[in-house]
Specification:
It is a single chain. By secondary structure, the chain is an alpha/beta fold. About 35% of the residues lie in helices and about 20% in strands. The chain is built from six helices and seven strands. It has helices at about 5-10, 35-40, 65-70, 100-110, 130-140, 145-149, and strands at about 20, 25-30, 45-50, 55-60, 95, 115, 125-130. The protein starts with a helix and ends with a helix.
C-alpha cells in the first residue's frame, strides 16, 4: 500500500502519466513486416504498440523481432510481405483506463511502458516508466512538503 500523502502527490501529476494514442507511433496489425521494419528503423523506440484498424490493442513489436524472423527464415526485405500480426508479441502486460497506481508501479518494474486499454479493448495510450519516474523525481525533491501534510 502506498502512503496516502505520497499517492496523493503522485496522482496530482497523473495527467503527465498517459501519453495518448494519437500522440504515439503505432503499427497497424495488417501492415507488412517490410513496412514495419522501415518505420521502426527510423524511430528511437525499441518497441511500439500494434493496433487493429479500429484502434483495438493487438500487441507490440520490435525491430529485433522482425530481423530475427527475417534471419531465421532467410528472407530478403522484399520477401517480408506477411502481416506484422504474424510475429507481434501478444502476451503484453496492460492496464485498464481505471488503473491502480500501485499496480502501475509494480508492472513498470519489468516493462518500459504499459498500454492503457478502454473497457472494449480500445487502445487509449501508454504509461511509460519515464513518466512515472518524472513524478517520483518531483516527489523526492518535495518529500518534506508531502510528509508534513
Amino acid at each position: 500500500m502506498i502512503s496516502p500523502n505520497i499517492e496523493a502527490f503522485l496522482l496530482d501529476h497523473e495527467d503527465t502519466f498517459l501519453t495518448p494514442a494519437d500522440k504515439l507511433a503505432v503499427i497497424i496489425d495488417t501492415h507488412n513486416m517490410d513496412h514495419a521494419k522501415l518505420l521502426l528503423s527510423h524511430m528511437t523506440y525499441s518497441r511500439v504498440p500494434v493496433v487493429t484498424e479500429d484502434n483495438h490493442f493487438f500487441g507490440t513489436i520490435s525491430l529485433r523481432e522482425i530481423v530475427q524472423y527475417q534471419t531465421e527464415n532467410g528472407l530478403s526485405d522484399e520477401e517480408l510481405q506477411q502481416d506484422i500480426a504474424l510475429i507481434a508479441k501478444r502476451d503484453v502486460v496492460t492496464v485498464s483506463e481505471h488503473y491502480d497506481l500501485a499496480e502501475v508501479l509494480r508492472k513498470l518494474v519489468d516493462e518500459s511502458f504499459l498500454p492503457v486499454l478502454g473497457e472494449e479493448g480500445e487502445f487509449l495510450g501508454i504509461i511509460t516508466r519515464k513518466s512515472i519516474l518524472k513524478a517520483i523525481n518531483a516527489l523526492v525533491h518535495n518529500v518534506e512538503m508531502v510528509v508534513k501534510k
